[in-house]
């Protein structure tokens, strides 16, 4: 690693989509591209280097409206990146998400053979993500994408997914989304939990010290890897009707149904955390970004009588719980964007519509961040002393799942949890710095 590794974050070279939280409300579009001609692909990289906004200059092209770009391993190959450089990328990235399916819990109906094509195939080379506060400004970002693709016969758009904030600003299961975002040293972007110390920049951007005190392995040459990061894209179909049916069957009243939903998630539907209001929802708290993520567990709820140890948000981010010594090594930036029509309130029969979340998980260590959380925290309960018990909301349950809600004198135990979330596809991407995009454009191999 060169001596410049200890310099401050080079914000003008880091894609805005890496560190900036998405706007709220939001609209977004995912575009997948295939590179059929190497020269055309390189020309695209050059055009994108001026179309993608940086963290340091978010007002160019347009404030909370931006375009991000990621390349798959197959995409880097299609651009003609030298073999020595390809071999320097993380091995999970080189394998691709489809090859990592078993470790991620993508089995059965979530297995790659059932994925929506072309997700998980060698045809996916470039992932473009356009994000904006509304549909009108989203069109501005998409226009930049179209300009970058103009008259490039060797690059083909092969898939598109439009996303949006639901009218309730909630994800399809009905919970307020996009609440938790870590503070990152040197970014100038505040986190959403004032009690969480900022994380080292190297956990999210390559070329800087991480929580271990060293530097994450960086793709070579340094101009290619520095200021980039890895991203795991996931299309997750949500079985909203099945979720509602389960709550209804296992509850004694509408009030009990809402409490049960909160215990499974760890938050009330408004976004208010159980840790702050254990007995009833508080919509005002849920809507307040200064308070709805400002809590810890160790002193306030170490035993899980308020927020069950196996609940979704406690698994995804245990905060300062008993595993706190390693939690910071597994933190990621998570971004979910809803797709598909909302299921009308009160409907418990599936209408056949495809709805769910497009997720992006950002971090410099695919193995100890995204893959570890998926395999050890979401789809196993060993770290909680719960054995094989999975996350009750997003875990790879098979109809025999269980969930325990601590209470005195006898815990409340749920049986027969089905799979509420099905993986419809995914990709591992590398989000280069802006200088790296120009380097890719100028390749002559």
From TrEMBL:
GO terms for cellular component: cytosol. Residues 66-149 form the DyP dimeric alpha+beta barrel domain. InterPro entries: Dimeric_a/b-barrel, DyP_N, Dyp_peroxidase. The keyword Iron applies. GO terms for molecular function: heme binding; metal ion binding; peroxidase activity. It holds the Pfam family DyP_N. Its cofactor is heme b. Keywords: Iron, Metal-binding, Oxidoreductase, Peroxidase. SUPFAM superfamilies: Dimeric alpha+beta barrel. It comes from the Bacteria. PANTHER family: BLR4509 PROTEIN (PTHR30521:SF5), DEFERROCHELATASE/PEROXIDASE (PTHR30521). This is Peroxidase.
